[in-house]
Task: structure prediction
Amino acid sequence: MIKQYLKQAIAMLRENRLISAISVLGTALSIAMIMVVVLVVQIQVADYYPENKRSRMLFVDPGGTEIRSVENAQNWMHGSMSSEVVKSCFYRLETPEAVSAYTVKGLPASPMDRRYFTLYQVKLVDARFWQICSFRFLAGSAFSQADFDSGIRNAVISESLARTLFGDVQAVGKEFRLDLTPYRVCGVVPDVSKAADMAYADIWIPYTCDADVMRLDPEYENMPGFLGVVILAHDAADFPAIRAELAQSISQYNRTKRDYQISFFQNPITQWDKARGSWAQSFVSWKRYVAETGGLLLFLLLVPALNLLGVTHSSIQKRQAEIGVRKAFGATNRVIIQQILCENGVISLLGGAIGFVLSFIALPLCKGFLLGSSDTALSGEMLFQPAAFLLALLFCLVLNLLSAGLPAWWITRKPISDALKNEEEINK
Amino acid sequence: MIRHILTLIWNQRRSNVWIFLELLLVAAILWVVTDALVVDLYTYHRPLGLDTRNTYVVNINRHVETADSLQRAGTGEDMLTLVSRLRQCPEVEAAGIGMWACPYVPANAYRVFVSETDTTVITEENTMSNVYHYLIADIPYFQVFHFQTKQGQPLAEELRQHPGDLVISADVEQKFFGKESGQGKRVKNDPSSTNTYRIAAVSSVIRYDDFTTDDPRLYRVVRTDQDWVKYMKSYDISQFQCFLRMKKAYTEEEMERFLQSQGERLEAGNLYVSSVQSVCDFRDSALKEKFDAQKKQIALTAFMLVNIFFGIVGTFWLRTQSRRAEIGLRAAMGASKRRLCGQLYGEGFWLLLLTVPFVLLILLNLLALDIPDTYRLAYTGWRFALAFGGTYVLLGLMIYLGISIPAKQILRMNPADTLHYE
Result:
């Protein structure tokens, strides 16, 4: 039966080439645009190197801290937390697999014998950071917990920086200056894509080496600083338990303070929360996100669907007589609707396949304005996820249903005698 | 003729309704997008009030972290030494110092100002309308960014010729003194205060970035090294930035080479030049979000237009096919081919025109809800004409292109053949 439909669909595609081309291209364009939207979201949430465990991560990004005076609620500051807060509220959590604190700085890096003045992105991290992100080392290894504890100036640098500074990836043991401070290279990692926002940097050093980060501000009871936190859960199902334990730990910490209290807005947030547009100080709910992105997707589906509706409507009208005959010989409405959807499905799937391929071509071309930076490296891991294929298929089916469902329903409701006549003006 | 076309459209309402709905939906959305682009383009092309090409920020750091009081002693002098060394380089056109004054970098420095004669009492309610962006800079700073007076003369020159403490932007002048010139007049921070500041010059209107509207601001002009040293004693050195304008455009490598050639000259006392960033980089990152949004809007517009094209081609192609008999008959009755094509185009354009009342209704609703951006550009006749005209010209073009394909088919038709279909 399906074979019969297929044959008929292909014959129809051949019969009116211009119309077929327009239908297929229209579908392709729509699916391509939709898939670009889907891929952009996917790049924000999928697990890939070196953030392979994103789905188990919780974040309190730098900037997500609020310190408020107990006496005067108007006296508050928004910013990041100090190393003391990290130690007393986060490091002691027992539910998560690991907790890491980090911050970002821009500093010039130069070889020992020369001075460069260009800024590089430096991530100041702790030793757990290497457990949470899964870096592959081209040479050497990460700095150890002992290095971190005693503030030893060991740095992990990216492959391209190693080449700029030393002309070679084999840079372990070599020294360079970060601003003017000498550091020793302990490991070299491949360049990280900017899409992996939390892991991305050119240089990673222990935050204990930085006086600014370690400085405590007694005026605000040692609370403000520069750090953010990433928490790795054993399983995403542990998130509520971690939040509960964290709340407890925060209130315990606040009890030790007199004038100020610390809080973290809606943090910690998940990678999905971030992909929806949430950041440290503002939380975007699912409801708002679905209304916005869902509206865009619906629009991308609706416009071509209206196009296709006109076309399928006309082509079905032409076949009124054929359908009338089939009905006269006992075909039920269900069978006829099924047939029309199947035939039209061929166009949808063909267009969908082309659109799917187009989206993978369009994304790298448009990444400059879609992904925040034109030098964001894309990898197969980010793009080729089974969910993307399934979604593309789903959108094809929806488009098919939208564009062929209505005319099919309409034609089956026509009395057989009218359909058989097929005398009336076709376009009426 | 028009009546005839309208009758034709009405008689084919079943197949027209889909393309009509699509045109309506797209026209409404296209109008919103075009209107936003008109406002953006208008704002982008207004003068910014300063010029950041070939300018750089020099970040200056301390060698040794010491206790606060020790740190600040002599630091100001060291900073001024570094800046004057940079100023002497033949590659450098100008070098100035500013506080909270890097273009495109947000700085939360605002202060209340009123004109000397103003007696309004500042209360919590009216504070906001008397608060202005407040920045601190020396005369070479205005040279670095090519600031201009209201009349278009170099502001730095004007400042050298006229004494005074402040530069105010033209919009502040207008608010304080109406049509009168503000130069030489005095302002104060508080109506009750006796401490007044003399206005040395009035600059052109200055905007925070290329996509925002006027930012009324006052610059405190620091005229002597002693004054700078005083400031640098009361604030941490990280609050002050040195700005350079190079004589010609430099690539990143050339700039590195220039700085490396300076060697020891980039160190003075406890201070050294740590890094140099192009102000254009700050501009790029400040404007990126807006540019990205525009590109997305343009992609969406292209998508809509292509779809309209496909929709029109599809609908009208099928229509000419199914109406071959009618067209043949018309041809046999003496209608020229041009007339037949004209009728087809007429149908298309009338379909588009019929969306106008609905789109206007949507537009009026949006205006009533104050959704279009009237903050950066008032909703005037020309803005309406441009956005609305742009929308319909684009859609009309797509309809023309879309119909030209079936129209060609008509031109190829032989009336004798087409009559066979009867």
About this structure: The radius of gyration of chain B is 32 Å. Residues 2-47+286-419 of chain B form one domain.
